[in-house]
Amino acid sequence: MLWNSLNQTVELGWDFYLPVIMFVALIALAVPVWAAIGAAAITMLVMSGDLPLSAIGESLFTGIDAFALTAVPLFILTGDVLVRTGLSKKFLDVAEALTCWTRGGFGSATVLVCGMFAAISGSDAAGAAAVGRMTIARLVESGYPRPYACALVAAGACTGILIPPSIAYIIIGLVLGISASTLFLAALIPGLAILVSILITNIIMNRLYTYETGGNMGLGEWLGNLGHALKSGWYAFIVPGIIFYGIFSGRLTPTEAGATAVVVTILMGFLLGTLKLSDFPAMLVSSAKVNGVILPIIAFSAPLAEALAIMGVPQGFVTAVTGLTDDPSVLILLMICILIAAGCVMETTPNIVILAPILKPLADNIGMNEIQFCIMMITALGVGFITPPLGLNLFVVSGITGESILKIAARAIPFVLTMLIVVLLIAYIPPISTTLLPDIFK
Known about the structure:
Helix content: over 70%
Largest sheet: none
Shape: globular
Low-confidence stretches: none
Mean pLDDT: 83
Order of helices and strands: HHHHHHHHHHHHHHHHHHHHHH
């Protein structure tokens, strides 16, 4: 019904259908997403004849000609250096000391260290790989079934795009023309809410199935363990401290904070003797591979957005949807369903560049705050990281452990459900994402 309404509103023809079919076919054939987006965009522009082919090159350049995008490779590189220097292990030690007094303490520590890593790298896949290598074997030794241990790490790593600073918020800010620093501030409470929901879910599951025993520790012993962990690893928190203070105080832009974090992390690695010049080629290649996946998608999103705008798809989508119902609650639920479905089959970056310009007018039409819309969108897409059939984090932890993706996905269902509850709260309760913002943005 919605598709028919959209078709009647925009009068779509083969200049729309053929590129869409081409995009789906290329994705199914495992062609890189940026190539599929580029092929669809170019085909759409050529068939419509509304924009000369010579303008596509200019669109590709302007799509990535943004100072804010410099922060993306910097945060990715910071995460790589963090792992190489062993500072991520210090995060785990402190997290374990914080939670060792509870039953299920190491499971909770695993989730916390995912959040700590997220606050630096801004990448979920990097967090899943780094934390998974450190914790999954120990989780299994502690009594957790291997599929559940993998699911726990995959869920915790979702905070990589939800807790600021986040690459996803930099990209959606670029696409919609919103300050990344503003989005970081707005995402702080929702990101922590997701982290707490994962912690609570793990505690409940541990209570039900008694995966991990322990917690018989007095206050003095707990404080002693925590003090020892902080004494031996306090310097690891200099990096996230610089990032958070710099961005949220307004003294540093996200790009400047990323650059500072890279330099400080490298210096700490040299001072500790855990980083050598011979480590740099591997780190730079690893970061370049991740960055090489993200930036071409952003570049080709510009001509695609122009093609969709020329054809009137975003405006037609709003007209078609509001023609079916004008109830804001139903429309918000529809947007969430679209985002979660998209997150199940495609990564965050292409989803942002394709769906944000289409759904944003609908959010504006029902009076949703644009900041709240961005937070809702990224959080809903984040659920897709542990939801089949794609579930990027499921593939990452499966790759490093050899565990079946289906078994991991089955154990991830409780985490998906609790994360969905947080998404609904963010969508229907604006203060969750606007409380920390200056009045001008509310």
